[in-house]
Amino acid sequence: MAGAGMMLWALAAACLAGVSGDEFSVLRSPQSVVFRDGSWPVPGERIPDIAALSMGFSVEEDLSWPGLAVGDIFHRPRATVLVTVKGVDKLAMPKDGISYPVENAVPFSLDSVANAIHTLFSEETPVVLQLAPSEERVYMVGKANSVFEDLSVTLRQLRNRLFQDNSILSSIPLNSLSRNNEVDLLFLSELQVLHDISSLLSRHKHLAKDHSPDLYSLELAGLEEIGKRYGEDSQQFKDASQILADSLQKFADEMYNLYGGNAVVEVVTAKTFDTPLVRKSRSILQTEESTSYNLGYSYNFNYAVVFNIILWLMIGLALAVIVISYNLWNMDPGYDSIIYRMTNQKIRMD
C-alpha cells in the first residue's frame, strides 16, 4: 500500500511538474475577442501567438489551446496591451477577469507581432511601444515616437519624474514603502510609467480611432526587486503587490476606454523564468529594419478592395463576351440583323 501511494504521488507530481503557479490573465477584452472560462494551461512559449491570433494575425504553427475562441473575424481589436510582471506568480486583481495557469514559463517577446504590424500597416504608422523601465530598454515604432516623446525611459528620468508635482506619489498610498529607498523608488517609477502612458495617449485620442492596430508590451521587475530586498513574507512586498494590482486594473480600464472598448489588456505574472531572454538591441527612434530579407512587396490595406474590383469586373466582362458571342452565333441574318433587313427592303424597291 505504501508503495502504491508513493507511485500515485509521483504520478501526480509528474503531471503537475510543467504547470507552475504563474498566470496569464485577461483584464479587459472586446466582444470580438472571446476568451473561454476554464483552467487550460497556457504554453509559455505560445503567449506571443495568442496575442497575434487575438489581433487577427496568422501564426506559423497552429495553436490548439482551447481558451481562445475564433470570435468576430471582421472586427479585430484596435490595440493589444500585454504587461509582464516578474517576481510573483499571482496578483489579487480587484475585478473579475479570466486567468489561466502558465505552463513552462519561459521568456518571450512580442517582436514577431510588432514586425507583423509594421509590415502590414507601414503606410499608416501604427503605435508600437515595447518598454522595460528597470532595464532602460525601449522600442518605439510609428507614431509612438511623437506620442511618447516625453515618456521617461531611463532610470534617472524615472527618478526625477517621481518627484514632480503631478506624480503618482501624491495619489498612491505608500503604506510600508519608502521614498528614500532605491528599490522602492524603482517599483514606484514603473507605476509612474503606466500612468504616463495612458495620460500621454489621452492627448492623442484620434490615434485610437484609426484602422491600424496598436501594440503595447511592458515588462515590470520592480516587485521582484522588492521581494529580493525585503522578502516575500514582508509587509513591503504585500503592500507593493496590492498597489501593483490596483494600478494594473486602473491602467487596463484607462487603456480600454481610450480605445472605445476595443482593446485587449493582458497580464502575465511569472515568479521566475527558466532561461534568460536574449534580445537584439534596437534604437529608441528606430522606424524600420535595415536588414533585407528578400521579401515581397508590403501588404497594402486596400489590397482586398482592389482585388475584388478587378475580380468582379473581369467576371462581368467574361460573362458579357459569352452572352454576346452566343447571341451572334445563333442569330438569323434574315430577321435579327438590321443590316440584312434594310438591304432586303432596298432591293425590293429597286
Automatic annotation (TrEMBL):
Segments passing through the bilayer: 309-329
Domain Renin receptor N-terminal residues, every copy: 21-271
Membrane topology: Single-pass type I membrane protein
Record's keyword annotation contains rRNA-binding: no
Any single GO BP term: central nervous system maturation
Main location (coarse class): membrane
GO molecular function: signaling receptor activity
A single Gene Ontology CC term: lysosomal membrane
Quaternary structure annotation from Swiss-Prot or TrEMBL: Interacts with renin. Accessory component of the multisubunit proton-transporting vacuolar (V)-ATPase protein pump. Interacts (via N-terminus) with ATP6AP1 (via N-terminus). Interacts with ATP6V0D1; ATP6V0D1 is a V-ATPase complex subunit and the interaction promotes V-ATPase complex assembly. Interacts with TMEM9; TMEM9 is a V-ATPase assembly regulator and the interaction induces the interaction with ATP6V0D1. Interacts with VMA21 (via N-terminus); VMA21 is a V-ATPase accessory component.
Functional description taken from the UniProt entry: Multifunctional protein which functions as a renin, prorenin cellular receptor and is involved in the assembly of the lysosomal proton-transporting V-type ATPase (V-ATPase) and the acidification of the endo-lysosomal system. May mediate renin-dependent cellular responses by activating ERK1 and ERK2. By increasing the catalytic efficiency of renin in AGT/angiotensinogen conversion to angiotensin I, may also play a role in the renin-angiotensin system (RAS).
Protein name from the UniProt record: Renin receptor
